[in-house]
Structures are given as C-alpha cells and as structure tokens.
Design a protein that fits this description.
The structure is a single chain. The protein has 223 residues and is an alpha/beta fold. It has a single domain, classed as Rossmann fold (3-Layer(aba) Sandwich), CATH 3.40.50.1010. The chain has 11 helices and 5 strands, in the order αβααβααβααβαβααα. A 5-stranded parallel beta sheet has the order 3-2-1-4-5. α2 packs across α3. The two termini are 23 Å apart.
C-alpha cells in the first residue's frame, strides 16, 4: 500500500452521477461478509456500476469459495449494476490490459481493471464519474486518462461522514481489508498502521469542517 492517497478529494463520491468499481475492493469486502456489502447500497444506491469483466472475476471468486458473499453483487437485484462494454470499448480495454504490469495470475487478471478504467473514462463524458480502484499501477493509468480515481479508504470515510459507521468502525473495516490474506492487500490507500489511523481521523475532521463551512454544497473537499 502506498503511504499517500492519490486522486481527487473524496467529496466527489457524494456528488458523482456514477461510481465505477474495480474488482479489488468489492472482492475484499465480500470476504468480510454480506453485511459489509450493504454499505455500498446505502452509499451508492442506483449509482454503483461495474464492467462485465469485474462481474466475471467476482463470479470466479464465488465459485472458488474465496468470497461467497460476492453473490450479493451479481444477483438479480445486485448492489452494483453490471455494464457491458461495446466492442470498441472492449478492444481499448484489451490494449490497456497489455500495458498494465502482469499480476500473479497472469495478464488476464488485469482485464477487469482495464475495463473499469475505460468505462469510467467514457461515462465521464455524460456526468461526474468516480472510479474506485486500489491498484497503484491501475490508479496511475486511470489518472493519466483523466479519470477521477479514488482508493477504497475514501469509501469508508464517506460511510463515516454519512453516519453509517462510527469513525473507529470505518477504520477497523479498512484494517480488516488490508489484512485480508485471501485476496491480497489493496495498495491504493494509507498504511493500516497507527500513523494511518491518525491520518484517517484527521482527514475525517477536515472533511466535516469543510461540510460545515458557509457555502459548502456537499462536496466536502479538504485542504
């Protein structure tokens, strides 16, 4: 995990028309269990989407028994809606995949990541879009294409700001995600240590102060 978060301020998660998800956060959250997935419905009901390649990776996790709770993400009333890319978008995603570093499972593991970046890039033309992604190389690729890319730590901050978790609960979820050995460690946010915890709480304080400031319109951008 990198020591500093990258990308735009997390207030954009509140105002975005669409929030696109890569596989990592969804799969990690599903490892923790179904109740943790419901926070996505509360925060992004009707706004959360994923490309088909991400859905297929989640289905593979369900079949392999790694994250059975991920079934809630791909059911008929799924928490995150699947979007199928057209042929031109799929071609671009395959090209992008080849540019991303090969992971342990081979280049095929990059396809969900690549499709999520392409989908977010194209949806941005229709309205404010945020991509939740927790791979350092994928984040760099997304930002290079003008995509608003944020790590999952900001989603948990939003859950605290919206009152769905107490601040310590939100941080505990992040620590559990970072410690998940079943799926690897997300690398797009803060280190899950004491310094990270202090920074997390400090950021939340600044965000709430920004929301309370005169003229704030819900973006909650911090200095």
């Amino acid at each position: 995990m990198t020591s500093e978060p990258t990308g735009p301020r997390p207030g954009r998660l509140r105002t975005a028309t669409v929030v696109v998800f890569d596989t990592t956060f969804l799969r990690h959250l599903a490892v923790l269990g179904g109740p943790y997935l419901e926070i996505l419905r509360k925060l992004f009901d009707g706004r959360a989407v994923m490309p088909l390649a991400v859905e297929l990776e989640l289905r593979q996790a369900v079949r392999g028994g790694h994250a059975p709770s991920a079934q809630a993400l791909i059911a008929s009333d799924a928490i995150v809606r699947t979007v199928r890319l057209d042929d031109e978008q799929v071609t671009r995603a395959h090209r992008l995949r080849e540019d991303l570093p090969v992971k342990n499972g081979g280049a095929s593991e990059n396809l969900g990541e690549a499709e999520a970046i392409i989908l977010a890039q194209d949806l941005a033309a229709e309205g404010e879009t945020v991509l939740v992604i927790d791979e350092g190389d994928g984040t760099i690729a997304a930002l290079g294409r003008g995509v608003n890319a944020l790590g999952c730590v900001y989603v948990l901050m939003l859950a605290a700001v919206e009152g769905h978790y107490r601040d310590d609960e939100a941080w505990d979820v992040y620590v559990r995600l970072a410690a998940s050995t079943a799926m690897g460690i997300p690398d797009g946010g803060w280190q899950a240590d004491e310094a990270g915890r202090v920074k997390f709480h400090d950021y939340l304080d600044k965000w709430r102060a920004a929301l309370a400031a005169p003229g704030a319109h819900g973006t909650g951008r911090t200095a």
